[in-house]
Amino acid sequence: MNLRNTFNLGVKELRGLWRDPVMLVLIVYSFSLSIWTSANVSPEALTNAAISIVDEDQSHLSARITSAFYPPYFVEPQMTTTAEMDRRMDQGLDTFALNIPPDFARDVLAGKNPAIQLNIDATRMSQAFTGGGYIQQIVSSEVSEYVAGYRAETALPVDLALRARYNPSLDPKWFGAISAVIRSITMLSLVLTGAALIREKEHGTVEHLLVMPVTPTEIMFSKIWSMGLVVLLGSIFSLSVVVQALMAVPVQGSVVLFLAGAVLMVFAMTGLGIFLATIAGSMPQFALLLMMALLPLQVLSGAMTPRESMPEIIQTIMLAAPNTHFIILSQGILFRGAGLDVVWPQFAALAAIGVALFWLALIRFKKFLR
Amino acid sequence: MTGSVAGVSGLTLRYGKVTALDNVTLEIPEGRMVGLIGPDGVGKSSLLSLLAGARVIQQGKVEVLGGDMRDVAHRNRVCPRTAYMPQGLGKNLYPTLSVEENLDFFGSLFGHDMAERERRITDLLAATGMTPFRSRPASKLSGGMKQKLGLCCALIHDPDFLILDEPTTGVDPLSRRQFWDLIDRIRATRPGMSVITATAYMEEAARFDWLVAMNAGRVLATGTTSDLLSRTGADTLDAAFIALLPEEDRGEDSAVVIPPRTTDDSDIAIEAEGLTQRFGDFVAVDNVSFRIPRGEIFGFLGSNGCGKTTTMKMLTGLLEPSEGRAKLFGHEVDASDLSVRRRVGFMSQAFSLYSELTVRQNLDLHARLFDMAAEKIPARVDEMIARFDLGDVTDSLPEALPLGIRQRLSLAVAMIHAPEILILDEPTSGVDPVARNGFWRILAELSRKDGVTIFVSTHFMNEAEWCDRISLMHAGKVLVSDTAEGITKAKGCATLEDAFIAYLEEAIGETAPAPAAAPEAAPEAPAAGVTHHAQQSGFSLRRLLSYSQLESLQLQRDPIRLTMALVGSLLLMIVVGLGINMDVEDLTFAALDRDQTTTSRNYIADIAGSRYFIEQPALTSYDEIDARMRSGELALAIEIPPGFAADIAAGRDVQVGAWFDGANPSRANTVQGYVQGMHADWITRQARQLYGDKASGGSFELVTRYRYNPDVRSLNAMVPAIIPLLLLMIPAILTTLSVARERELGSIINFYVTPVTRLEFLLGKQLPYIALAMLNFFLMMAMAVTFFAVPFNGSFLGFTLSALIYVTATTALGFLVSVFIASQVAALFATAMLTMIPAVSYSGLIYPVSSLSGFGRVLGEIYPSTWFITAARGAFSKAFGMAELAGPMLAMGIAIPVIIGLAAAFLEKQAK
C-alpha cells in the first residue's frame, strides 16, 4: 500500500466534503444542536402527567392532597366522579386517577389504615412507574404532615442514605448528552464514508481511479482516514465545547482514552459504511439501508435502555456490533472514570470487529469495482 | 406556404443566473420535418420542453396547435395530440419494465382499452422490428432499441405533433438510419403530422425539411438545408453552422488537418488477441483482435452497448478478459501491475473528474497519484494548463465550465503523466463542432509530434475519417478494421457512413428481419383517432390503475425497496419491541455488611429476594465498592453499619448507606424507587414486630391498580404503540420515494405531458402502498399476538378498518412531503423526521394530548397518529368495539381528503 496515495486521495475526500453544503450542515448539526436538543429532551422524566381526582372525602386532608399536584410534574388535576373517571381513562385523557374514599381523613386519624385507590393507565409505561412513585410520595408526605398535627410519630429510627454515584442529582442531561455524542459518531461515520463511495460511483470517478496506479485498499483507506478524521474532530468539539463547556456536564475519566476508543469505533463503522454502500449502489437505496441498519444498532446496543433488560439472545447477537462495546467503554470512561485496566476487553473487541468489518468491506469493494 | 403548428414569441427562460433561451421568436411550419441544430447547452431542449408543455413558461408566448400553452385548459386539450420524447437514452422509459409493459403503460394513459392497446403494440413492434424483444426489460436494450421503444411510446396515441429531443444521440449509424426511415414511413401514412427534432448530428439534419440553427439561447438562422448552405457559401452543414456563429465563437481556422504518419509500423503499442468478455450468458466482447502501432490514431465505432467500452476496460486492465490476451508494448496487461497504468492515459465516457475540485486541484491530484516527484508537479501542471489552454479557468470548478473546456481538462488530466498510450472513450459526444475541431487538433499534435498512440471511440463520421485506421464494432464483434478510404472502397459506397451501414446490415441481416420489409404495418391513422382524442378529460380510473400497476411492477423489481416495504416494519417491530424494554430487572447488587447480625442479614435478604435484584459476592471494603461500581459490575451497593441491630433495639438513630449507579438516570430512578420502597416496607414490618399495631397510626394504604395491563408488562404497552409508528413512517417514506424517484430519474415528464391528472397520479401510486401497508399490518398483528404474546381484547374488524383508514392517511402524508422536496435522499430523511416528530411528541404516545398546550395540542388533535394510537391501545388493551373505534375512525377519515387535496394542489404539473 502506498501511503502517499492514501494521503492524497484522502485530502481529495476532504476537499470534496468541504464543497458539499448538505453534508457540512449535517455534520455541524449532529455535533452541536442535535446534542443540545436531545440532551434536553428526557422522555423518562415526569412532566405534565395528566391526573384526575375523585374526592369522595371532601375533607381538609383530601383538599391538601389535591392541591399538592401541580406543574411541571403534573397538570392541574381534573376533579371528577367515579363513572366519569373510567370513561376518561378509556379515552386516554388521563394517565392517573386517584380515588379518595369517603371518611378517609377520619379513618387515617383513627389508625384504621384506610385504602386510597390509584388507577394507572399502564399502557403509558414511561409515565406509569415514575408517576406512580411520585404520587405515592406526595400522598404519603401530605398524610404524615396532616397526621403530625395531631399526634406523635412512632417509627423505626432507621434512615436510608441513598446516594447516586457519577451523577448525584440524576440529571438526565448528562446521560442524554453523552448518548447523543455516541449516536452522532455512529451515524456520521456510516453516512460519510458510504456517501463518499456512492458519490464516486454516481459520478463515474471510481473507474477513473482504477486506471491509475492506485489499489482498492488505498482507496478504501483514504476514505476511512479522511472521514474518520472529520468524525473525530467533530466528537472532540462536541465533547469539549458543547458537552463540557456549554452544558457543564462533568466528564469523570480520560477524554484521551475515550478518543482512542472512538478511533477504533470509527474504524469499525466506516468499514460497515463502505460495506453497506457496496450493497446499495445508489444514494436512495443506501439511505433506506441505513434506516434499517442504524435503528437496531442504536436501540439494541444499550444506548437507550440498559442491556441487561434485553433478552439473552439479543444481548449475545449484539456483541457482534461495534456500538455495544463502544457504549460500554464510553459510559465506563466518561461517567465512571474507568481506566484502560477496566475497559481493555471492549478495546480488544472493537479492534477485532473493526478488522473483520474492514476485511469484509474490502472483499465487497473489490467485487463492486468490477 | 403552409400554416404553423407552433410558434413562440419573445420567449425567455432562465435557470437561476443562466439564460437558456434569450428572447426567442420562431414559427414552426405545419406538416414538416423540422430540425433544431446546435451544440449542447444552447437551449434546444428547453425550447422543446416548453413546446411540449412540460415546463412552466417564464416569459414570452408559446402557441401550440392553435392555442396558448399558458392556458391549462388548452394544455389539457393539446396533450393527447402531442408526443414528447425527452433527451437521454430511454429517459422517459421505466428501465425495469419490459418493452411491452412500457408500451402498455403509455397506451392506458391515453385511454385505450386492452384490445386496442394490444393491437397498437403489436403493430408498432412489428413496424420497428422489435417484436422479438417484447418481454425484454428496457434497461437491457441497446441504445438504438431504447430510442425505438421511446418512439413507439410516443407514437402509441397517434399524435399530430411529435417532439423529439436528440433521439439518435449515442446510437449507431444503422439504427439511426432505421429510426429516420421509420419516421418517414409514419409521416407517409399520416401526412398531417408535424415533427420537430433536435440533433447534434449535422449529416442527419441535412435530410430534414426545414432547419433552425441555435446558439447561446438564440436562433441563428432558419430555412431549408440548401438555404443555409447557400447563405453561408459552405459545402457542409457543419461548416455552415460555424460560419453562422458570431465571430468570437468561431475559433481558429476550422479545418482539421492530420499530417501523414511517419513512424514505422513494426513497433506495436496495443495488441489484442481473441479478447472475449462474458457477463453470465451475455457475450459483451466476442473474440476481438487488432494491432495498433505506436503513434497511430485508431478509431473505434459502434452503437452504445456494442462492447467498445468493455474492450477499452480490458485494455486498461480494469476488467480481466474471460478469454484472450491484451498486450501493451508487448507486455500482457495485468490488473495488479500498476506500472503499466503509468504508461496509459484514460479518459472515460462520462465526464469523470472530481467536480468538487478546481481545475488546478484536479491536475495536481492526478499528478500525485501517478507518483510524480513533488517538485516537478507545479511545472508539469502549468505546462498542461498552457498546452490545453486552461489558463483562464484554473480556479474554477469543472461543473461551471462549458462541455468543450471540460473535455480539454479531461484530456489534460489523462496526459498529466505523459503516457505513451491514450485511451479515449467517446471524448467528444455532446461537444459543439468548434470545440471538437480544437480537440482533434490537439490529438493530431499528440500523435504526430509526441508519438502518442491514441485509441479513440466516436459516433461522428467526420472524426472517424480523421483516424489513421478504424474498426467497426457490432454486438461484441469487430466487423472490419481498415482505413476510412479502404472501408468505403470495399463496399463501393460514396460515404463512410453508407459503408458502415452496409457492414452492419450484412452482420445482422440473418438475425433480425429487415424492418423496412413491413412498411404496410406502420401504424395507419385509425378512424377512431379523432374520437379517442375527445375522451381524455375528466377523471379516469384506467389512468389511475395504470399508475398503480406501474408502481407495483417497479417495486417488485427493486429488491431493497421491496424488502423495506415487506419486512422493514417487522424487523423494526422486533428491534423496538425487544430493545425498548422498560422493565428494569436483574440489577446487580452487593452488600458490605459490617454488622453481621440476623437483623442486618434479614435486611439484605429482602433485597436479594426481590425479582429486581441479583446478589453478587459480598463486599469487603469501600475501595472495593469503588472498583466494582466503576467497572459497571454493580448497579447498587448497600452498606450496613456496625451495631445496626443493637442500635435499632435501643431506638438509637442508625443509617443504612446505599450507593447506586447514576450514569443512566432513568434506570437509576427506577433503582432508587425500588430501594426506597423495600426500605420502607422493611421498616414497617420491623416496626409491627417491635411495637405492634399502634405503629400503624397515621398510616394508610395506597392501592395501585394498573389498568389495561395488570401485569405491567412493557410489551403490552409498547406493541400497540409501535404499530401506529411503523404504519406511519415506512408507508410515508415509500410514497415519498415513489414521487421523488420519478423526479430524479426523469420519468415524471410522462406525468407532465400526458393527460393523467394530479389526482389520478397520486391515487394511482397510493393504491399499491396501501395494500402493502395493510399486509404489514396483518403481519405485525400476527407477530404481536403470537411472538410478543400481547392480548388483543377489542374488535378485530373495527381495528382493521381503522388501520385501513390510517394507512390511507399516512401514505398520503408521504405525497405531501414529496411535493416540496426534490431529491430522493432529502425526501427520505425529511419524511422520517416530519412524520415521526409529531407522532412521538404530540400524538399521546408518552404524554396524553390533553396535557399538551399551544401548537402541540392543535397538531396532536388533528394528527392521524393520535387517533390511531388511541384506537390501537383501545383495541388491544381496553376492549374497544366498533362503537368506541368509530370516533377515531371518523377523525382520521376527515384527514384523508385534506392531506390528498393539499398534496394535489401543490403538485406541479409542469417543470419549473
From TrEMBL, chain A:
Keyword terms of this UniProt record: Cell membrane, Membrane, Transmembrane, Transmembrane helix, Transport
Entry superkingdom: Bacteria
Membrane topology per record: Multi-pass membrane protein
GO terms for cellular component: plasma membrane
Presence of keyword Transmembrane helix: yes
Membrane-traversing stretches: 229-249, 255-279, 286-304, 343-363
Region forming the signal peptide: none
Gene Ontology MF terms: ABC-type transporter activity
Domain ABC transmembrane type-2 span(s) in chain numbering: 132-368
InterPro entries: ABC-2_transporter_component (IPR051449), ABC2_TM (IPR013525), ABC2_TM_bact-type (IPR047817)
Subcellular location: Cell membrane
Family classification: Belongs to the ABC-2 integral membrane protein family.
Annotated protein name in UniProt: ABC-2 type transport system permease protein
Organism: Gemmobacter caeni
TrEMBL record, chain B:
Transmembrane residue ranges: 717-740, 767-790, 796-821, 828-849, 885-907
Keyword terms, alphabetized: ATP-binding, Membrane, Nucleotide-binding, Transmembrane, Transmembrane helix
Source species, domain of life: Bacteria
GO terms for cellular component: membrane
Keyword Transmembrane helix: yes
Residue ranges occupied by any ABC transporter domain in the UniProt entry: 6-241, 270-500
InterPro entries documented for this protein: AAA+_ATPase (IPR003593), ABC2_perm_RbbA (IPR047651), ABC2_TM (IPR013525), ABC2_TM_bact-type (IPR047817), ABC_transporter-like_ATP-bd (IPR003439), ABC_transporter-like_CS (IPR017871), P-loop_NTPase (IPR027417)
Membrane topology: Multi-pass membrane protein
Chief location category: membrane
CDD domains to which the protein is assigned, alphabetical: ABC_DR_subfamily_A
Subcellular location per the Swiss-Prot or TrEMBL entry: Membrane
SUPFAM superfamilies for this protein: P-loop containing nucleoside triphosphate hydrolases
Keyword Nucleotide-binding: yes
Gene Ontology terms for molecular function: ABC-type transporter activity; ATP binding; ATP hydrolysis activity
Sequence ranges assigned to domain ABC transmembrane type-2 in this UniProt record: 680-910
Protein name from the UniProt record: Ribosome-dependent ATPase
Taxonomic lineage from the root: Bacteria, Pseudomonadati, Pseudomonadota, Alphaproteobacteria, Rhodobacterales
